[in-house]
């Protein structure tokens, strides 16, 4: 048998297998017929026969229900040794370490150069950024979301279900992951959230979301004095002070140059003193300005360079 014929035969076999596990309602292809049945049951038939004994949350598969119940019983004691986050399985820990800490992202977006840890993460990116789609709708208020998990999390706003309480400040959360994030960010002051574009780290999710607008080009904050638009309120304020009010309260003692922002002033002073406080966590280079560090990371470490 020729090599070309062998490739054709393998391709035909793959197509037949794919057709056997492809959903006729939405066209999605699953890895096997069991996952196809679970997909139809959960997504199209809205059938969730398995429920949690503790909070009565419903699931389409027994495996998902058992994995969820472990969050109540404390059975998910699989911990990341780097950031101390608890996950539901050793496989989840491996994915977490590879994606968050080692930055191993092998699944490429078909529309751009970005890479992701999982297909689900990639699909959410495609829906949100390229297709501008939010296929998951809230059954109560019709709010739309790009992932099913975001939609389920939103539903708890309506049900009022609060399961997890912080033992340090009594704040309550609907998701255990949100409670753990709250403890690390607020009480332990850890910066566990990182930007996929530039690597900058944050304590709070709201700060990361605000930062991501810088990369996405989204500019919701409009100047009241001109037609300018900005990604953050802080940038808009800086623009007003610098361009319209001409306020530059920070002056360099060495050369007299003035700045509207203290950070810009501090970084300018570094050029006189030779200080380079911004260190790259991937190599030995240091920089006098934060913007130069971010440019270095994006150019040398986040574009496939070593």
Question: Mind explaining what this structure looks like?
Answer:
The chain has 11 helices and 18 strands. It is of the alpha+beta class. Among the domains are: 20-75, 2-Layer Sandwich (Double Stranded RNA Binding Domain), CATH 3.30.160.60; 258-306, 2-Layer Sandwich (Double Stranded RNA Binding Domain), CATH 3.30.160.60. Strands 1-2 form a two-stranded antiparallel ribbon. A hairpin with a 6-residue loop joins strand 5 (107-108) and strand 6. The longest helix is centred in the N-terminal third of the chain and has 18 residues, at 3-20.
For the report, how would you describe the main beta sheet? 2 strands, antiparallel
Number of helices: 11
Overall geometric form: elongated
- SSE arrangement, N to C: HHEEHEEHEEHEEHEEHEEHEEHEEHEEH
CATH superfamily of the domain at 20-75: Classic Zinc Finger
The beta-strand count equals: 18
Tell me the CATH topology of the domain at 20-75: Double Stranded RNA Binding Domain
Helicity, as a percent range? 40-55%
Q: What is the topological layout?
A:
Blueprint: H1 3-20, H2 33-44, E1 50-51, E2 58-59, H3 62-73, E3 78-79, E4 86-87, H4 90-101, E5 107-108, E6 115-116, H5 119-130, E7 136-137, E8 144-145, H6 148-159, E9 164-165, E10 172-173, H7 176-187, E11 193-194, E12 201-202, H8 205-216, E13 221-222, E14 229-230, H9 233-244, E15 250-251, E16 258-259, H10 262-273, E17 278-279, E18 286-287, H11 290-300
Antiparallel strand pairs: 1-2, 3-4, 5-6, 7-8, 9-10, 11-12, 13-14, 15-16, 17-18
């Amino acid at each position: 048998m020729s090599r070309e014929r062998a490739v054709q035969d393998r391709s035909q076999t793959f197509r037949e297998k794919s057709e056997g596990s492809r959903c006729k309602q939405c066209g999605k292809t699953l890895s096997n017929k069991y996952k196809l049945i679970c997909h139809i049951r959960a997504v199209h038939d809205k059938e969730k026969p398995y429920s949690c004994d503790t909070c009565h949350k419903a699931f389409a598969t027994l495996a998902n229900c058992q994995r969820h119940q472990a969050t109540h019983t404390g059975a998910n004691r699989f911990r990341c040794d780097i950031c101390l986050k608890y996950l539901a399985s050793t496989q989840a820990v491996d994915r977490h370490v590879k994606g968050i800490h080692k930055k191993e992202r092998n699944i490429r977006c078909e529309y751009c150069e970005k890479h992701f840890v999982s297909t689900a993460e990639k699909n959410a990116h495609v829906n949100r950024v390229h297709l501008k789609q939010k296929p998951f709708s809230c059954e109560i208020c019709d709010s739309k979301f790009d992932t099913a998990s975001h939609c389920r999390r939103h539903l708890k706003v309506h049900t009022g279900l609060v399961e997890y309480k912080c033992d340090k400040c009594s704040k309550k959360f609907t998701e255990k992951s949100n409670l753990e994030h709250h403890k690390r960010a607020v009480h332990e002051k850890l910066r566990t959230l990182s930007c996929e574009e530039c690597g900058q780290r944050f304590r709070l999710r709201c700060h990361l979301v605000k930062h991501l607008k810088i990369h996405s080009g989204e500019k919701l904050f409009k100047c009241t004095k001109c037609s300018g638009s900005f990604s953050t309120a802080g940038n808009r304020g800086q623009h007003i002070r610098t361009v319209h009010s001409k306020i530059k309260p920070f002056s360099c003692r060495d050369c007299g140059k003035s700045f509207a922002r203290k950070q810009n002033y501090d970084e300018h002073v570094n050029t006189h003193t030779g200080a380079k406080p911004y260190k790259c966590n991937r190599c030995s280079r240091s920089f006098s300005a934060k913007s130069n560090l971010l440019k270095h990371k994006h150019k040398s470490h986040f574009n496939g360079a070593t």
